Amino acid sequence: MKTAIVVAIGENGVIGNDGGLPWRLSTDMKRFKAQTMGKPIIMGRKTWESFPRRPLPGRLNIVITRDGNYRAEGARVVGSLGEAIAIAREQAEADGIDEICVIGGGEIYAQALNSADTLHVTHVAAAPRGDTRFPEIDPETWYVAEEESFPAGEKDSHPTRYVVYERHRK
Ligand SMILES: NC(=O)c1ccc[n+]([C@@H]2O[C@H](COP(=O)([O-])OP(=O)(O)OC[C@H]3O[C@@H](n4cnc5c(N)ncnc54)[C@H](OP(=O)(O)O)[C@@H]3O)[C@@H](O)[C@H]2O)c1
Question: Domain range holding 89?
């Protein structure tokens, strides 16, 4: 069972601003949907609240919060990343799926990076102002397994470069 991080990152490491995304990337949204469909997705409470329509359909949505009274309609609410990963794995195994996805935001990525197997990163050709960042992707730990560039489509604010990073074998 693989744990994948799925994230879009600006050239300056920014991933979010003021509770939302600092760009509009329709092409990337479609890729995100295809990448995560049918798989359990794990997110922090703030990312959950950033979705205009929730839960994301066709996927088990798992929301992490320290608030034991938190309710998230259509999602599983858990108290830690470890618990989220355990539930996601159980569901994926039951569904015959070999990957679970951590989809943000900054706090959850920072905690999940050490145990992730794969990073699906959309590098956005922009350096927007932001209040949330992704940690450095250390080339000592990660290598580029796949890479593809996309020009900005009609509904995209910026061009992107989609990179799959895999962990170096020790
Ligand atoms: N560019 C991208 O690909 C991407 C993807 C996703 C999100 N984002 C952006 O990232 C921003 C949100 O990120 P964020 O870092 O502010 O928030 P976040 O990671 O989405 O959620 C943080 C919340 O998760 C809960 N949490 C974190 N660690 C926990 C732990 N160890 N145990 C239990 N609960 C824990 C806490 O919820 P409680 O406060 O309820 O206890 C915390 O406030 C938004 O701007 C969003 O648009 C960007």
Answer: 2-167
Site to probe by mutation for ligand 1, drawn from 50, 107, 123 as the one with most ligand atoms within 8 Å of Cβ, is 107
Q: How many domains does the chain have?
A: 1
CB neighbours of residue 37 within 10 Å: 13
**CA 103 to ligand 1 centroid distance, Å:** 10
pLDDT in tens, 97-138: 999 999 999 999 999 999 999 999 999 999 999 999 999 999
Beta carbons of 116 and 5 less than 8 angstroms apart: yes
Q: For the domain that residue 75 is a member of, what is the CATH number?
A: 3.40.430.10
19 CA → ligand 1 middle, Å: 9
